[in-house]
């Protein structure tokens, strides 16, 4: 059996999956994360912020924070610029005092979205970080987490 988003029923479960990934990431010994705070936006219009994640990271000299605004898109087709037209991404980062914006998609993005993020990266004077995880990128990240697989992909997990 192939790991896919077929077991994810809707956008709400997809957002829960993304939030769960960030809650579990602290347990990964390959990083220096000492604390993770995951704040879902809750019910209603979110204005482009589905999840706010704050990492406390140790570099063995000091502990510092990195905050990410995360938007999840559970679209069947590739995400287009039109799908993001109501969100001013740099303003959203600034509003939450974040360091970056992560777009997590069920599938992929169009070249226009990819180019838009590249322009954000290149031209941002405030040094914000802009990232896109396609569905394939996200599946690679969760593939080795048994707790997430058991909870969100039970059929796949049973087939292992």
UniProtKB/TrEMBL annotation:
Location of the Restriction endonuclease type IV Mrr domain: 10-121
Regions crossing the membrane: none
SUPFAM superfamilies: Restriction endonuclease-like
InterPro entries: Restrct_endonuc-II-like, Restrct_endonuc_IV_Mrr, tRNA_endonuc-like_dom_sf
An annotated Gene Ontology molecular function: endonuclease activity
Any one Gene Ontology BP term: DNA restriction-modification system
Pfam families, alphabetized: Mrr_cat
Domain of life: Bacteria
Coiled-coil intervals, chain numbering: none
The protein's name in its UniProt record: Restriction endonuclease type IV Mrr domain-containing protein
Native organism taxonomy: Bacteria, Pseudomonadati, Bacteroidota, Saprospiria, Saprospirales
